[in-house]
Amino acid sequence: MNQQALFAKMALDAWNVYIERTNKLFDSLSDGQIAAEVAPNRNTGTYLLGHLAAVHDNMLPLLSIGEKLYPELYEPYVRTPDKSGQNTPIPELRTAWNEVNSALSVAFEKFSADDWFTRHTAVTEEDFAKEPHRNKLNLVMNRTAHLANHLGQLAFLKPRG
After folding, report:
1. Which of 8, 53, 94, 103 would suit a FRET pair with 44, their CA atoms being 20 to 30 Å apart?
2. What is the pTM of this model?
3. pLDDT digits over 61-96, tens only?
4. From CA 117, how far away is CA 139, in angstroms rounded?
5. pLDDT (tens digit, 9 = 90+) per residue, 92-120?
């Protein structure tokens, strides 16, 4: 295995671990538990579920996989703070989360090691020539850290006992 393939495998293994951990947590929580605040006066689990679904959905065009599946989630769950009028039902957010991550997983399986080191669509060709680290794999690594951060917040929704 060459170094690019090894780096891609390491990054994707981390991505998959955090997707699995987050899925396990969401699957263990009722809609009522997800609707709660992770801490007093903090984000709700509903908002974080919508936020993660929207951020991952945005990865589809960034990685040249395809168009967003749920573009309507971006404004209320990325550009707008929690408790600003979001009203997407939790079952719909769960569906979006699962479908977006399934689409990413299918596409990731098709990427070659070389594909991961090409630019993502938020970087111009000129900037990428100067900063080749701004590639698709780096974007997935960034989103893995983002997911890990929010998973830490979501863990507070689990009942204590």
Report:
1. 103
2. 0.96
3. 999 999 999 999 999 999 999 999 999 999 999 999
4. 10
5. 999 999 999 999 999 999 999 999 999 99
Tokens linked to 145 = 């850290």
3-state secondary structure 29-41: CCHHHHHCECCCC
Q: What is the DSSP letter of 160?
A: P
Residue type, 34: I
| Amino acid at the residue 12 | L
Tell me the per-residue pLDDT of 142-155, one tens digit each, with 9 for 90 and over.
999 999 999 999 99
Average pLDDT for residues 126-155, to the nearest whole number? 98
Whole-angstrom CA distances from 155 to 15, 27, 38, 75, 160 are 18, 12, 8, 25, 10
Domains and CATH numbers, the chain: 3-157 (1.20.120.450)
Q: What three-state secondary structure class fits 87?
A: coil
Distance separating the N- and C-terminal Cα atoms of the chain: 46
All residues at 6 or more sequence positions from 139 whose CB lies less than 8 Å from its CB, including other chains: 59, 62, 63, 120, 122
**Residues 6 or more apart in contact with residue 152 via CB below 8 angstroms:** none
Q: In whole angstroms, what separates CA 8 from the centre of its chain?
A: 17
